[in-house]
Amino acid sequence: MISEPGTDDQRSPEREPGYEAPDPAVGYFRCCHERVPALVDAHFSLRGTISLHRHALGWDLLIAPVNFLLGIPNFLLRLLALALGLLRMQRASSALWRMNLGFTTSVQRTLRKHLEDDLLALPAFDGNDQKSRARRVSIAAEDALQSYLHARNAVADLTAGTIALLVGFVVFQQFTPGSVSTSAAIAQAAEKRAAIQDFMLGDTLGALYYTAFPPEVTGVTLLTTYLFVGVVIAFLTALAGLLHDPLQSALGIHRRRLHRLLDVIEARATASAGGDYRPRSFFLARFYDLVDWVKGWLSL
Fold first, then answer.
1. pLDDT tens digits along 217-260
2. CB atoms within 10 A of CB 189
3. Which of 98, 133, 211, 283 has the smallest number of Cβ neighbours within 10 A?
């Protein structure tokens, strides 16, 4: 016998025993994941990254050398944060992880606004309940967004270091993965050229002699060269996204990284605790820097 509409036998899902209403946050983050392809196409394609890096022309180029020189201190802070985390000193570890030495660039501010507006759609929240959720999402996203932007800087450092590596192979036939090793190679070449020109028996014999017995590099030459190379590489770093953004977009790296970012934010927004966003690229770039420092100082 078919029950009449509205009788107790016709139950809505909400009245079933054990029924749990769907979490609105789950649907919200599903929509965020669906926005990832559009955001990547808009800001990390060739045209998009050109538009994004227009903001680097100006103040960013002036502060780039400072941020570049603070790469190693920032890496040491992250290592200390990891060590404190292993010792179960989570509060101190989290504080160090959030700390970043250096200046925020215009490119970082612009990209962060795109992430908040176009990916998380925070300005679209309306009503008291939604505004409360927006605040919760914003708080959960704070550290993750900062880590994401720092990871982009690390990728830019890797790109600039790779350019230095290629220059070293082509010009000096040496392994020069960054500013220190490249500076050492240039300083050695400059000192050798000056010594050959001053050799009393002529340039040909001078070249043979100083190939066998390379001249010592003075501190002034090394420091001057390092400052020059550091500034050049810092400028390359500020604009490196023009190279690595379209490549990472084509390989799907940007999409995977943004999906991972959203997963971390969702975990922190919907639970009392969640994982941290700690991209491997940051540690890879800083390890690359350490190799550069060791290679540079050993070659002197």
1. 887 888 888 888 888 888 888 888 898 999 999 999 999 999 99
2. 15
3. 211
